[in-house]
Structures are given as C-alpha cells and as structure tokens.
Structure to design on (330 residues):
C-alpha cells in the first residue's frame, strides 16, 4: 500500500478502479437488463425481482421474506427519477463496482496492484454477479456489505466493523452470517460487538414495524417464512449431488472453482476469517434450497479472489518504474 503514496494517491487509485470496474461490468450486465421480462422472470429464477420492483413502486409485496428488504428499492424510489428497472440498473452497477473496489483494497494489503486487479475480475466475471447487476435484484448491496466487511477485518477498522453490525440485518438477512467473523476476528471488544449487533437487530425490527404499518402486514409471517428455510436443506443436499445441481453450482465461478481447489493446498496463507467464511457460505447454500446454490456460492468471492491472487503473485512481479525508465533505447 505504501507504493501508492499518501491518502490522496489512494483516493485517486480507488476512484480510477471504481470507474474501471463499472465500465467492465456495464457491458455484460446490459444483456440481462435488456432481456429482462417480468412475464418470464419467475421461470428464469428471478421471481425476487418482481417483488423488489413492486417495493420501488410502493406496492404491497405478498412474500413475507422479500417484503422487508426495502433499502435498495427505497433508494431507487427516492433518488432515481426514472423507471424502477433503470434505477436498479444504475444503482446495482455502482454497488457492484464499489464491492469490487473494496475487494481490490483488501487484496492490495497482500499482493501487488496488477495481481489485485486481475483477481478482482474473477468476481466481476461471474455469471451470477452479471445477472444480479443487470436485473432488479438486491444482491449487489450484499456483495458490497461482504466486501466491505472483509476489508474492515483486514485493516481492523473499528468504525467500519460497527457500521457493518448496524446495517447488515436491515440490508439482507444473509448479513447476519458476518456477525461471527466480526466477533472472532474484529478489533471490537465482545461487549462492543454485542452492543452494535443488538442495535443493528433493533434497527431491522424497527424497519419491519414501519413496513408493517405502511402496508398492513404482520412480522410473524416473516418469522414463519424464515423458519421455513430449514425445510430447504434436504432439497439443497439432493441437488448438490445431482448433475443439474453441480452444473448450477459450477456456474458461480466456472473454472475458478478448480483454482480454488488448487489454491487450498496452501490454505495457511489465507486469513482465518476467510477460512471460516467458507462453511458459513455452505450453510447459506443449504438454506437457499434448490435453484439458489450458485447465487449463494458467489458469496465466497473474497476467498476465491484471494486464492487466485496468491496463485498469480509469484508469476506477476511488477517492474519498477525506475527500471523501466532507465532501460536503454533500441
């Protein structure tokens, strides 16, 4: 990190990388954006998107799980003076690029810039990331939450870890799986983790109460629907051993799954929070049930990116600028 100079140099670097990542993902994400059809969204596994569009239009959502995921739809409704689909595309593009920038910043703590850039593209090149960015889904906010959390753990940023505990339960329920990592490996004390975590849960409950009063729903439906996720586990386990299920899971990272398996030969190089994140992602895959395995598997992107970075690092040694300038002309 010292190679980039002062704070202003880092800000310029991250701004440039943010623009680069947004440009990189914009083209591929434009395809699912243009092909998106609400009439066929459910058949394509994008039924969630219909509920998020409804929330952005201030309409009641019958699904008790999706009903309270209002952060992104509310931002689209308040700030996007355009059709909800267009608003989601612009917002998701920014969120995905921001997540990739946080991932890059985390990698720069261990590897050179060239390696960090290439490894970050593993995340941006995933099919699930491209689809989530180009359609009215809220997964990009979860990507940013996860990448920001791992960056905060790497730099031991107390305020960023506290912010994660406060926002995670409201953004999406998957954010609760970050709590054990912050508790075990963060710089906050156990008392601070408990306080911020409890406050974050209270904020989420408060948001749910506001939503229920606005739409006339009942929070008990959400609790019952969340418990129903446990019934997804047998189906998810059956899918995991089927050819179709393995193919679906393969699409999350494609050939980079092989790199992940190869890289785990040197698993001791990984930070402990990354190692602990793998079984937590596996639990989320099981709870998602059949058809949701790849969307949850992509949440392991910090682990995969780090593995790719450690594999590439020995072969991509940066050339010092002074050496390049002093090279004799032909």
């Amino acid at each position: 990190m010292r190679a980039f100079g002062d704070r202003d140099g880092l800000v310029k670097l991250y701004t440039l990388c943010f623009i680069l990542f947004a440009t990189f993902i914009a083209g591929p994400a434009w395809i699912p954006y243009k092909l998106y059809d609400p009439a066929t969204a459910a058949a394509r596994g994008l039924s969630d998107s219909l509920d998020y569009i409804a929330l952005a239009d201030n309409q009641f959502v019958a699904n008790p799980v999706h009903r309270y995921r209002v952060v992104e739809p509310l931002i689209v409704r308040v700030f996007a003076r355009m059709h909800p689909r267009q608003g989601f595309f612009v917002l998701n593009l920014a969120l995905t690029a921001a997540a990739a920038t946080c991932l890059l910043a985390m990698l720069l703590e261990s590897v050179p810039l060239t390696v960090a850039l290439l490894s970050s593209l593993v995340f941006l090149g995933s099919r699930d990331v491209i689809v989530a960015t180009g359609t009215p889904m809220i997964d990009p906010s979860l990507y940013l939450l996860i990448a920001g959390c791992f960056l905060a753990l790497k730099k031991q940023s107390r305020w960023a870890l506290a912010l994660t505990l406060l926002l995670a339960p409201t953004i999406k329920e998957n954010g609760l799986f970050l709590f054990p990592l912050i508790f075990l490996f963060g710089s906050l004390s156990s008392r601070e983790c408990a306080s911020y975590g409890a406050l974050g849960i209270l904020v989420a409950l408060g948001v749910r109460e506001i939503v229920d009063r606005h739409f006339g729903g009942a929070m008990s439906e959400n609790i019952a629907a969340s418990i129903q996720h446990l019934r997804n586990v047998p189906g998810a386990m059956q899918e995991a051993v089927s050819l179709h299920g393995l193919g679906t899971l393969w699409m999350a990272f494609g050939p980079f799954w092989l790199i992940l398996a190869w890289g785990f030969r040197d698993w001791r190089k990984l930070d402990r929070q990354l190692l602990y994140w793998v079984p937590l992602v596996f639990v989320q895959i099981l709870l998602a049930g059949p058809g949701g395995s790849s969307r949850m598997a992509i949440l392991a992107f910090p682990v995969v990116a780090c593995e790719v970075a450690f594999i590439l690092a020995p072969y991509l040694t940066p050339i010092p600028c002074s050496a390049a300038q002093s090279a004799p002309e032909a």
Observations:
- Residues 7-35 form the longest helix (29 residues).
- The chain has a mean pLDDT of 84.
- The two ends are 34 Å apart (CA to CA).
- Residues 2-227 form one domain.
